[in-house]
Amino acid sequence: MYRTTDTSDIRSNLLFGTVVEPSGQGESVPVTKTALLRVDRPFDLKEHASSVLFCGTKVIQTRYYNNEPVKALVLRTGYNTSKGQLVRSILYPVPADFKFDRDSYKFIIILACIATIGLAYTVALKTGTLTEDGLDMWGVVAVSGASKPPRLGRPQRDPRQLNELHPLKLGMATCHSLTLLDDELAGDPLDLKSTGWVLEEPDIPEHSNYEILTPTIVKPRKTANIDVDDIHLPLEVGIVQQHQFVSSLQRASVVTRVLGEDVLRVYTKGAPEMLRTLCIPETVPDNLYEVLNSYAEKGYRVIAVATRVLEGTTF
Q1: 292-312 confidence digits (pLDDT tens)
Q2: How many Å apart are CA 119 and CA 17, to the nearest integer?
Q3: Where exactly are the transmembrane stretches of this chain (predicted)?
Q4: What does DSSP say about strands 237-246 and 251-258: parallel, antiparallel, or unpaired?
Q5: E strands along 103-224, which residues?
Q6: Cβ–Cβ contacts within 10 Å for residue 26, how many?
Q7: What is the pLDDT of residues 109-138, one digit of tens each?
């Protein structure tokens, strides 16, 4: 009897003697392997497993009889062994062709087709809703100034019916990014058209626009007048400064001045959730989310407008 630490990379069949394997194949205790007792039948790996040394097994003890050394016959080497087949299956996986896999691919293809049709329908609907020439405003919902705390009142289908000096109407008429190019409005004229106001720019060289305080003016299409310090003046609102819409801020703002007034007014337009965080809590309608959700659930595009007076500003 002797002890060896030889580790073999082959699978062999024990012909003579007895060996003891440690728990290298998952057994909890060392396993004894004996020589084949019958060689008159074809060799079967499962039937003669008690006489097989597996690749990677460490032999810790051997016994031999009649002065005959322990001998074994190599059956498989390299990738032909169980360990080699495992490594080979990892390196070169065999394509699986199961019926379940084929049905899964068919199911995924069907879902992809349905998703593509839904996406195409959604894009067409979105494009037709937001960019077609016939796009119009459904209406506005103004804050009722008589209620305490403030609440959103009844919807007004035609914004032109609002008072010309209503803060919501002034915000819609001024808070936009419209400009005149060759006497044609460039941009989305929805808000301005819905108020019945027009936009004018001074007829001066382009490089001189920033030398005057109000290079852009909006005013009602029909002449309207206001009284300022007992002086009868036409209603005109100059856009002093513009801050374009920024997606990360979810809002756009303008600084304006009504002709004859000595204060500046800021109008901000954007996502209702964002504007709510910027407003004084006491001025936010207590039914804001209730009204907002009712229109959002119907698929309407909802935009909020807020305002603030900058007092103490000198010109």
Answers
A1: 888 888 888 888 899 998 876
A2: 73
A3: 107-125
A4: antiparallel
A5: 140-144, 151-156, 179-181, 184-186, 197-200, 216-220
A6: 6
A7: 999 999 998 888 777 665 544 455 555 778
